[in-house]
Design a protein that fits this description.
It is built from seven helices and five strands. With about 200 residues, the chain is of the alpha+beta class. It is globular, with a radius of gyration of 21 Å.
Length: about 200
């Protein structure tokens, strides 16, 4: 009886300590995304500085907050395996530049808006978690924005943003896969196409 009691107590201790650890990791991931959005709103969108300075600040925040190497590999999909080291390096560089250029211009769409965070959800991918948020809009229902966050070596990075159930990473992967499939130039043609958009 006593042995069984201690076994059950020990098992419950492991269970609850594991749950607490998961909650702490979720809280850290949410705090990380909150910090990123706060920096974006206060230091970029609402800052009384030139557009060039805003672009520079956005590039710094973007590079620090997102794991562009991880995302770039994901969006290239199965083509990553057949790409040469040179193609991989050039694709990551171009993909990074394109995203910084695109989102720096679109960031002002969040002017006057605030993210309201709604906790986290588990992910099937190891070392990843979803951070849930909504953004009240001028008209209609709030927009749902979910951040996929990856933890590696104690550091948190955003690896996808899902806006109204549309994943930006999956959308890009589908677009790039179709482009390479339908273009004789393959990965090199995709890189050239992305460069033309910067």
């Amino acid at each position: 009886m006593t042995k069984n009691f201690f076994k059950i107590a020990f098992a419950l201790t492991l269970l609850f300590s594991g749950t607490a650890r998961a909650e702490i990791e979720g809280a850290k991931a949410e705090a990380f995304v909150k910090d990123v959005t706060t920096q974006g709103i206060e230091d970029i969108i609402n800052a009384n500085v030139s557009q060039a300075e805003k672009d520079a600040r956005f590039a710094k925040l973007f590079n620090e907050a997102l794991d562009l190497d991880f995302i770039g590999q994901f969006v290239l999909g199965r083509n990553w395996r057949v790409a040469t080291p040179e193609q991989r390096k050039e694709f990551i560089q171009v993909y990074r530049q394109l995203n910084i250029s695109t989102w720096s211009k679109r960031f002002d769409e969040f002017k006057g808006k605030n993210f309201i965070f709604k906790g986290t959800s588990p992910s099937n991918s190891k070392g990843q978690i979803f951070v849930n948020s909504i953004v009240p809009m001028d008209q209609g229902e709030p927009a749902k924005v979910v951040w996929r966050v990856r933890e590696k070596g104690g550091k948190y990075k955003i690896v996808d943003i899902i806006i109204e159930n549309v994943s930006l990473a999956i959308t890009a992967r589908n677009e790039y896969t179709a482009f390479i499939k339908n273009n004789p130039g393959g990965i090199d043609a995709l890189i050239a196409n992305l460069k033309s958009k910067i």
